[in-house]
Every structure is written in C-alpha cells, then in structure tokens.
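Troubleshooting entry. The earlier prediction with 2-oxoglutaric acid gave an output that would not parse, so I re-checked the input for stray whitespace and re-submitted. Clean input:
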Amino acid sequence: MSMNIIPVIDVKSFHQSPTTEQKLSVAKSIRHACETYGFFRIINHDVPHDLINNITTESFRFFHLSSDEKLKFAARRWNPQSSNEYRGYFPAYVNGKEGSDISNPHMSLTHQLVQQNIPFHELNQWPTEQLLGKQWKITITQYWDATWRLAMSIMQAIALAFGLDENYFDQLIDDTMKGGAGTLSALRLNFYPLRDDSMPVLMGDDGQSLSCETHCDNVILTILYQHQVGGLQVQLDEPKRWLNVDVVPYTFVVNTGRCLERLTNGLLKAINHRVTLLDEERLSIPFFLGACHTTPIVALPTSISIENPPKYEPIEYGPYIMKAIQQFKEYRRNDSDKDVIYASSSIPSHCLVHLRQPSISQHVLRIEHSIDNEKLCKHKCSTDHLCSISTYNRRDHRYHLFRHSLSSHPVRTFADCREKVSLSHIEQKARVSIVHCNYDSLPWQRVIRSPSIIFQSYTLIGISYLPCQAHCKKYP
Ligand SMILES: O=C(O)CCC(=O)C(=O)O
Ligand SMILES: [Fe+2]
C-alpha cells in the first residue's frame, strides 16, 4: 500500500527566524504526527541537496570497496585489530545488510569516557585519504552537522509542543557544555547489496521477505534518507498493516524512537518498521539522535496526567541502549555470540540454510524465539539426534541450546548439506540432520514440526550454531 497518509511537515520556518506562532504551529503538527503514527516526512529542511548527493556518492564508494578493505574499518568482532567495540563497519552476512556506524566526529579525544573506551564513546576509524580521498571525512562530518542541527530543531519543536522551554532537551542530548563526553548519537550508512547465499533469510510476520528485519529504533528519534530505491515499510495499528514509505527525493522520514516514547510517557509512539527484499542495491542513511551516557530518560512532567499515569521506570540512556541493541544481531557482543555462525533467521520451508559449515561435534544448535506468547511455546527433543543442553532467558526472548547426541561421532561438517537443503534429503544414517522442519507461516504464529523438535512460538528469531567448547565442557 502506498504511503500517501504519511504526514508531511514543512520545516521552512525553522531556518527563517520563525515567529513564536510559526514555531508553535510546526510543533503542534510534529506532536500530532508522532502521537498518531510515530513518523512523518519533512520537506523544506536546510540540508543542502549537494550535501545529500555527496554523501550518497561517498557511501557507494565505500561500500563498493573489496570486503577485505571494508573489514579494516570494522568493529572488533570482525576485525580483532580494531580499537572499537561498536562503531565501524559490519558485514552483510550477519543480518542481511552491511553498514557503517559513525560516532560524533567532534568527540573529545581526551574525555575520560573516550579514554576508558566506555561503549559508544569510540572514535571513528576514517578510511585513509589514499583509499577514498580527503573528501570522505569532510562530507560525512558536514552531513553529521547538518542532520544534527535538523534533529535539534525537531527536539525544540517537541519541547514547545509539551509546553516546555524550547531548549529543554539541549543538555540532555549533548552534555559537552557541562564537561561531559557528549551525545551518543550515531550516523549510519546502510547498504543493501544484492542478496547472496551468505546472507540470512529474513522474513516478516506476514511472510514478506526482508532485507532489514522488523524493528523499532531505540534512540530518541531517527532522521532517515532513502536514496532512490524504496523498500521501507512502517507498521500501522488497528488494523495492523504495513505501508510503503515511498522515496521522495531530498526529503527525510523522521520516526520516534523508544527513548522519546519513554520521555513522553508513551504519548509519542515508537513504531515498527522494516525493509522489503529487493532485487537491486539500496542505500539508506539514518541519523540516530541519542542522548548522553548518563542522561536520565524520565517522563516529561507535562506528559503525565490522571488519564496518562507514569508508564515507565526511569532509566539511564547509555546502559539502556547498550542492552536494547542486543536485539540486533550486528550488535551482539557477548561471549556466547562471538563466533556464532548464523543460519537463516526465518526458515522459508523445509530447509535450513547453512551459511558456513558447522561441524556436529564442534557446534551447538541454538534456537531463539520471542516470549511474547509464552503459552504457545513448547519444545520436545528426541534423544536420537539432539539433546537439549540448556535454556537461557534474555530480556525479551529466550534461546535453547542443543547438541548432537552422538558424541562419539567423527567430526563431520554440514557441508554435506550443500547450501540449501530440504532436510528430507539428508541421509538418515549419517545423522547429520539436526532438525527437520516443517514451517507454517500463520499470522502471528510460526510452527516448526519435526521428529526431533516441536516449536510453536510467537516469532522465531533465529537458528544459529555456536562453537560448543564452553557448553560441551559442561556436558561431555
Ligand atoms: O534502510 C532503511 O530504510 C531503514 C533502516 C533502519 O530502519 C535502521 O537502520 O534502523
Ligand atoms: Fe530503524
């Protein structure tokens, strides 16, 4: 469905010394759009078209480098030499798209949080001039500055819309004036290459193939630029449906993040969005406006009323984001996830897609699912093929580990399975089959049936293999 209901907000007055009345009128429209939909399109902003052209050109130049070159700018998970845990490049085989996360280019080198390498207070590793020329860093910095200014004017409007001083959010978002390390906002370049078999298969709740999984941004707000190729969809409530957000050249789509939802006690909604799978390359550039590490995310006094009593516990921005982003595979960093080999995130039908070649004696199988509808979830294992090792609970999902029961079985890789295997073709005797799936995509419910495992869960998050050393020691 096309997106002609998306509210369009003209922000021309932002950069033309607006009168109080003009400011309040824009503020009201933004509040209404975020209360009703959680997103809107802005036109007549002052980010120069040339700058937008430049950043798209520079982004393509980066993503068209060889994989080896790009990995030099990756975070430590993919580049052990990197000093960054989070910021930097991430490859597409992890979660379907590649990207580069860029920190505030003005971050102080000497601030203690930066020196201590507190997560996200990480300096950008800029591509060398030799590789991409001088202009790369200049363009990225100019674009950062322009979208930062735009984001701050939107926040001023939101403050006004809640009856507060227009500068209410300034120091919460950037504490450098108070001697802090500054904002944890990030600019991200997202590149969606043509799909190949190294990338996971992602699927929406309606069976739609995706190149960016369904998610909600955790930050305060996002200013997104879609370059030429659409694919972005947002989810509307009542009735729940997905709507295309078309490309309108040189405009931005803004969406509310979970922190703004919390700051406004749920009045401004953070919404689910996703990107459909395309048969062409695609570039998108979100600017994620965040706060500072210790910024309290507490409901604005004017968002609380008898009709809208406090809904959320106060939290601190840094630790909250740190936890929340673990929902994204490209951000997972804890030990058990370090060398995960991801198989498909969703299972199309009768098959598992083996990305690499895990061996049954060196890997354990992990099945993750949401716990939204716990009642529906049950699992059963047959001692024939798999034994359950353990179940772990994460904040909003659960995962189960299994290992092959044939501990004496010689090391055997799943290479035998080729890339896409209908599991019924797997040789019974060799017992390399780990799980035989029948996968039905029912609205809001997925069912995997197998002789070994039965899963019914609200949403299947992923199937992956972990190196088993740690787990196998416990279960020889
Ligand atoms: O690529 C897009 O259009 C959306 C990307 C997105 O939602 C994200 O990176 O958070
Ligand atoms: Fe997003």
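This one parsed fine. Confidence is low (pLDDT under 50) at residues 335-357, 372-384, 406-460, 470-476.
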